[in-house]
Amino acid sequence: MEFKRIPKYIDAPMQFLWWEMQEAVIILALTFASILFLHQALYGVVVGLVVAVKYARFKENNVKGYFTHFSYWFGFLNVKKNIKSHQKLIIR
Hints:
Distance between the termini: 41 Å
Number of domains: 1
Shape: extended
Radius of gyration: 18 Å
Structural class: mainly alpha
């Protein structure tokens, strides 16, 4: 029998070690960028950890969906296009 991890809540974010997946991606992306451009992984890890901690604190202090509203407000998210594509699926 193969054991699989079942999250406690269905909407719980994915975890990588003790970080949420978004924070782990920040650390890994900055580490790889540091390796590519500076040829030093340590700088990327240190900066990635600092940025991930700041991001986690910022996320805790704001409401859920803050970045979605932020991206809509500054024009990075095109909601009207997304709504039209979902309406086509609902109308069928």
